[in-house]
Amino acid sequence: MARGKTPEPVMPADPTAWILDNGFAEFVLMHTSEIKYMVMLGYTFLHGCKVFKAVGPKAPFSYRFIYMVMACTGGGIIVPLLINSIPVPLSTDAYPIAIFTSYMIHTYAPVLREVIEISPVFKAAIVFLYETMRAFVVTKMTLAAAKAIEPSDFSFAVFGPIFCGTLGGCGGAFMPLSKGLDPIKEGLAPPMFSAFVAATFFHLFTTLATDVVYVEKKGKVMVALFFIAYGMYVNGVFKSATPAKKGKVDAAKKEK
């Protein structure tokens, strides 16, 4: 009696594959260098808006530029030092280039800082890029800390990676370190709160959901979606068109 071939085992379909099988996931995961540089430029540009408002126009180039480097990469400086690694501005050459490019844009085209306030479309695009990059930083710092910190009382390190991931998403607020705890004197700012929520979710999700295929990538996509939605809400992008719409309705009523 001839033996038949052993049928190959049928792999079960991934019920969460839809998280990665879409254009949004491809963008926020930054599969190409072009997307990475575009996101990085939007991230540094929005940070530059805050820096140039905080620092006077008469401040020297060296002060404003270093201030901007610290604002953009504060978490990428503090967290690597805590886990005995190389700070981001020294290990990633693209960051100083993007920061310098944004600095020149703010210096020679300051009108763009006004455009971002009056144009909902431009503001939404910059916030989208900014939050995409922030999600990348938070998840990267959380994973790096989880690998570097040895477990103590539990089977995996719990609070260390969450703390490092949170700092990765809002460390720039504490730079320079001479600020001390002033940034949280009146409570957590929205970027700090969102970074803490995202780092907590991402760390527990990637550690405990061991049966999920491509768990890290799916976690990154979900963190990016949360950051973008929360960033749009905090920056008033969703309601920016409401006053204009009301004004048109009131004008139409008056004409009648």
Secondary structure: helix percent: 55-70%
Radius of gyration: 22 Å
SSE order, one letter for each helix or strand: HHHHHHHHHHH
Uncertain residue ranges: 245-249
- State which percent range the strand residues make up: under 5%
Strand segment tally: 0
What do the pLDDT scores average to? Answer: 86
Distance between the termini: 92 Å
How can the largest sheet be summarized? none
Which word captures the global form? globular
Structural class of the secondary structure composition? mainly alpha
Tally of DSSP helical segments: 11
Write the layout of secondary structure elements.
Layout: H1 23-28, H2 33-54, H3 61-82, H4 88-91, H5 94-108, H6 111-118, H7 120-148, H8 159-170, H9 190-208, H10 215-234, H11 242-255
Helix pairs in contact: 2-3, 2-5, 2-7, 3-5, 3-8, 6-7, 7-8, 7-9, 7-10, 8-9, 9-10
